[in-house]
Amino acid sequence: MNILYSFVGPWVAYWHRSHEGNLVRGTLRSWPIPCKAKFDIYTPNDLAACPQVLVICSNIHSHPPPAPVKTPEAFRVIFYKLLLTLSWKLADATPRRILLDSAFIQALRAQLDWKESRNPTLSDLHPSLGNSDHARRLINSLRFDEFPSGTGFEGAIHLATKHDLLPVNERYVRCAETHQLPTQSVSSTSSLRLVICMTQQMSWRLMQAKRLSIDTSFKRVHGWQEFEFESWDIAHMKSVIGARAFTTSQSAQAHFILFQRIFEIASADTGCAVRFQYMHGEGIQTIIADGHKGQGLGLGMYCVYLCKDSIQACRYDPTILLRNLDPYDHLRRFYRLCLAHYKRNIRSLRGQIPKDVEIAMLTIASSEPHPDLEGTLKKIKRGGKKAAAWLKDKIEGTKFALPALYQPNSLIPLEIWKASPTTTNGNEQAHRNVNRDGVGLTLLGGIMRGFHYDENISTSLHLFDAFGINSSDRLSTHAYRAKRALARRGKHALLVYSSFYLEHSNGFQ
Fold this sequence. Notes:
Largest sheet: 7 strands, mixed
Structural class: alpha+beta
Radius of gyration: 32 Å
């Protein structure tokens, strides 16, 4: 017979992580309670022939059994089996998130044959799993096995490589690349990591759109910015996404590469070259954004790249060749700023600038000729330090801002200007919708959740085309949206009036 347990010396062969995070060798500590119980454990030489183990206990225990802080191997196997039901969602799994996943909870209830009305917790599977840190370590161990390339950029590269092998109409992750960006220092560079996600159907939507909206979100994927091309699909009366990308830089050069790669992919998918109204007489008429300097300048740089070999004249000003335009000249022909962001930034200056200066700032954003633009700019300049800095930024810092706000200073035809959306609310709503699936995600988790969101939108559009079934009872027609906007403005005006009345009610009596 063999004795199962025997120890030599005070040292244990395994290393352990201390509370301070350091690795130390484990030591055997003497049990503080003088328990006289003794176990003799005997196992046969051939367990297959004799599957029996003999345990002999001498004397009486003087203490309760130790806490079940370790998860037995059999329960680990069950826990891992349950985690595998999460599929790709394992990339973002945490002890809390898995308890919010209906598929995981359903599998856990079935495993435990659960009959109570409340949902089971991990500790109902085994008490040791009630320790969230311990459960997280087990999740991380399985995640490493399931995603050997990780759930970050390397995992995205692996996924992009797999999608390259699929038919074109099934691809989603189109590139996962690293680009070197120049810096102010001649001897150094910075890197841009870029992941572009778009299906072939999204490419068609992007290339067929006439009025685009662009915006960047910072919440959904930890350490990454999420960029979206959005447009309004008139045929389906729905906001649709034309491209989704994850980047690590907001510089102008990074945005130039971003626009270049997105339109290269869209052109390859559709067989159509990107076209702008002022360049080709058809195609993209306007692009509206929130006014980010790097984003706007990068878009202008991309237009310079498109026209570098062109011998055509500008459709809006035939006296100038397209190849002679600089980035800001290109932006004057199609770029607009979101009025919601513009007004919000002005409201943030309240209390720091006079009221008449605030009103003067608001009057600049117009499609009609200003009665006294020069006088208004002088009033703003004399409105204090904050107002002068604001004006300097709009004229010198962000050179495309004034033409993108004031139509007479731009070269966009008036009818095209008025047909363009005035805000990036479509982008904001698209970000909000996809953020409902989770924020603070890993890159791989963000890509996969975006994939399912975009595929659900495509399915909804196909359903409408095939059967005329809309995603809601009412179509978002122009009339319905205008009516809703008027109702909201009316409610806002009523709230303002009520607040004014309550504030001055004593004076009215």
